[in-house]
């Protein structure tokens, strides 16, 4: 009986999700088309700020139950149209994420306006309007917008989850991880790992032990996986590895579905020391010899430390054989401006080294 009831609930949930998805798609297209009208009228000099106010009043008078069509809402629609009708953004998105666009792919479309409509209808309609509002108000560059569009679609983020990604500067932290790992090793895939990781949801005191950190992450596993990315599947903590006559226990072990490999997170509550890598590499070798299956890729290690000297990390990883990342972790949200400055500084350092 309960199984039959659950089946009915599942049907209701699926239908409700489809209705919501369809309604959101229609809403996004509506806002885009209204934004197009407002943008073109303003650009041509036919409409000024007063006319937009009059339009808002006219909509309210004729459709009093409608929400979101006030002056501010109309200008958001105008901004929405102008941002996503940018040919440069379309080309960059298509080059990096054409797998997210329903065929025929945009490269087969000759007309620019047709490209824009295809992009809006196949990509932008997959994202809730509330998430679009966050992108418009909290991102600056084309690259940042594309990053969050891709993440929202790929990981199927709720509005709340998406807002956390923006507030925790996921773009800057992912770029920092990519920048540093690419500069010193080609073993790590781009766009998967971050630096630093932010665990503001743990509510840990400034002074805490490695066990405190580990137990808090386990208790908040859902938030931890959201911070890492939804491709991760939890395999366990204190995972036992037997080498020779001794047992060794890893901190947190995951499997990444897209990378098809195990990812080991080792936790340190102190600044990175080069000797930490020896133990991490030992664990990775044991995982690959005794746990990894033939079709899987080599395991990846992530050392989470409470601080690091970038030059020390560069030296330590320069001859490291195993794919590994040394990342900071923070227990509070970080100012995006500080991360942007750090990214610029890191770019300048490696640019000078290449000269």
UniProtKB/TrEMBL annotation:
GO terms for molecular function: nucleic acid binding. Transmembrane segments: none annotated. Pfam families: DUF1016_N, YhcG_C. Residues 192-343 form the YhcG PDDEXK nuclease domain. InterPro entries: PD-DEXK-like_domain (IPR053148), tRNA_endonuc-like_dom_sf (IPR011856), YhcG_C (IPR009362), YhcG_N (IPR041527). It comes from the Bacteria. Gene3D superfamilies: 3.40.1350.10. Residues 10-173 form the YhcG N-terminal domain. PANTHER family: NUCLEASE YHCG-RELATED, UNCHARACTERIZED PROTEIN YHCG-RELATED. This is DUF1016 domain-containing protein. It comes from Pedobacter paludis.
């Amino acid at each position: 009986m309960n199984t039959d009831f659950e089946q009915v609930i599942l049907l209701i949930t699926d239908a409700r999700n489809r209705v919501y998805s369809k309604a959101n798609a229609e809403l996004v297209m509506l806002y885009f088309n209204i934004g197009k009208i407002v943008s073109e009228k303003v650009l041509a000099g036919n409409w000024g700020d007063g006319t937009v106010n009059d339009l808002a009043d006219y909509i309210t008078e004729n459709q009093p139950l409608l929400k979101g069509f006030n002056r501010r809402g109309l200008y958001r629609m105008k901004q929405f149209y102008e941002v996503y009708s940018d040919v440069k953004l379309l080309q960059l998105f298509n080059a990096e994420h054409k797998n997210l666009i329903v065929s025929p792919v945009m490269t087969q479309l000759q007309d620019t306006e047709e490209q824009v409509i295809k992009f809006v209808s196949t990509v932008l309609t997959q994202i809730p309007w509330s998430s679009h509002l966050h992108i418009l108000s909290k991102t600056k560059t084309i690259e940042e917008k594309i990053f969050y569009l891709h993440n929202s679609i790929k990981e199927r983020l709720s509005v709340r989850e998406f807002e956390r990604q923006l507030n925790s500067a996921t773009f800057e932290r992912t770029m920092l991880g990519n920048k540093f790992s690419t500069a010193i090793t080609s073993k790590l895939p781009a766009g998967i790992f971050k630096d630093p990781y932010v665990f503001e949801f743990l509510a840990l005191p400034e002074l805490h032990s490695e066990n405190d950190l580990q137990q808090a992450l386990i208790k908040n596993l859902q938030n931890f996986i959201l911070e890492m990315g939804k491709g991760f599947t939890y395999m366990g903590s204190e995972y036992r590895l037997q080498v020779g006559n001794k047992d060794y226990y890893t901190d947190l072990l995951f499997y990444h579905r897209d990378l098809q490999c195990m990812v080991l997170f080792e936790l340190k509550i102190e600044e990175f020391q080069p000797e930490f890598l020896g133990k991490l590499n030992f664990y990775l070798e044991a995982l690959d010899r005794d746990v990894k299956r033939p079709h899987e890729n080599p395991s990846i290690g992530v050392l989470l430390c409470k601080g690091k000297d970038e030059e020390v990390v560069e030296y330590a990883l320069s001859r490291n054989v195993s794919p590994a990342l040394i990342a900071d972790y923070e227990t509070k949200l970080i100012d995006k401006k500080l991360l942007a400055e750090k990214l610029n500084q890191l770019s300048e350092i490696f640019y000078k080294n290449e000269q």
